[in-house]
Design goal:
9 helices, two-stranded antiparallel sheet, mainly alpha, homodimer, Multidrug-efflux Transporter Regulator, Chain: A, Domain 2, DNA-binding, globular
Chain lengths: 210, 210
DNA sequence: AGTGCTGGATAGGAGCACTATCCTATCCTA
DNA sequence: TAGGATAGGATAGTGCTCCTATCCAGCACT
């Protein structure tokens, strides 16, 4: 398959494909000659994945690169690879640098309380959680002291279900694809359902109120 | 309070404050003279809110404008105002235009199944949900037929809890602020917890696997 | 009296994700 | 075997968003 066919069958322009190859998101085609390369189904599949991640999840190109690199590193275990994926997909926000021992402690407490004993003590996500907690505390959002207790079992159920869906009879690349799609697309699915539920519950309380 | 004090007490530069005023995100100060205006606590509060939404939620400036406009429209009920907020905050993604009756039907089924009877039949969120469902179906993500049944009660519990937290003894602007912060910051909180839970569950299944 | 800060206007700039152009070598159909 | 189409590679440019910088005339404090 030549580059123009790859472009046609994915709906991605030739210029963009070249750009992705330059950025290392897509391997160059197998060279047939100096001026001709061959692309296969793997390229189609990868390109479709990249487009979903960008269109649905607005994942930055740099994060896509990190995902590709994590997939390529065959010395890491599947779990380590998934950890890299989580780190790469966290980039959506810019929480101002938090060096606050108190909120970090609260974050660790939450992870303990949830029973997530397998989370690395140095996982970057813990600091991110601390940053979000700081914002929640500072922003005057009404939060009851038992708030976390409400969320944790629900989130644990969701994440457990999603992980259970992953088909582990496939190769690492296919598993990574499932994991990343799950993170991004099902994350979006979740937030979308939550907004719908907000609308419903908001109507129950506030429909008649001016 | 003059503009430089407003800048100092919020950490936002004078130039940026001027930009926000131009864009209608912040009302101009009360004019004391031709070349001097007075800013008050409302401006500080609003500015802090705007920064949280941008820093944590990466909410685009245009969406912030829509939120401000919705708050200002005093003819709408609180529930309608919240609806506007949901619409404005959905902009994160660009699902290619879906004109697919099948997925739209699936989306409506999900809303029914969840019992969210108060969601407007013409809510834009329904089409967004349809788009996400289409992506899920097309992307080869493994999904069991009962998937929605797993998510719905969990999401409903989360959204119900969040709405219950809103303090309705305050004025519309304060309630809007709580709603929007809840959507954005608690949404981020939720996704962050979910990633941590993914790491834990992934370790249970894949720690030793190469 | 003079330094400095104000609101207002407008121009400039950084970053991101492409997109367009140019070039020469090869392909491939005729 | 001629010759337009297409390939890959390099590089520059575009459109968008979100600021940031500069300029200006004039009121304000000391």
């Amino acid at each position: 398959m030549r580059i123009s066919e790859l472009a046609d069958s994915t709906g991605v322009s030739v210029a963009t494909i070249k750009y992705y190859v330059r950025e290392g998101l897509l391997s160059p085609g197998r060279k047939l000659s100096e001026r001709l390369a061959d692309y296969d189904d793997q390229h189609v599949r990868r390109l479709r994945l990249l487009r979903v991640l960008r269109d649905v999840g607005a994942v930055p190109v740099g994060a896509l690169k990190a995902l590709v690199d994590a997939t390529q590193d065959r010395s890491a275990s599947v779990h380590d690879m998934f950890g890299e994926a989580c780190d790469a997909l966290r980039t959506e926000t810019t929480i101002p640098g938090v060096r606050d021992d108190h909120t970090r402690h609260l974050a660790d407490q939450i992870v303990d309380q949830a029973g997530w004993t397998n989370v690395r003590p140095d996982a970057p996500e813990r600091n991110h959680l601390a940053g979000i907690i700081k914002v929640i505390l500072d922003s005057g959002l009404p939060t009851d002291p038992e708030g976390a207790a409400t969320y944790l079992p629900l989130v644990d159920a969701i994440a457990g279900y999603e992980l259970a869906q992953i088909d582990d009879t496939q190769d690492r690349e296919a598993m990574m694809e499932q994991m990343v799609l799950g993170q991004v697309v099902l994350g979006e699915f979740l937030l979308c359902l939550r907004r719908l539920a907000h609308e419903h519950h908001s109507a129950l309380r506030f429909a008649e109120r001016s």
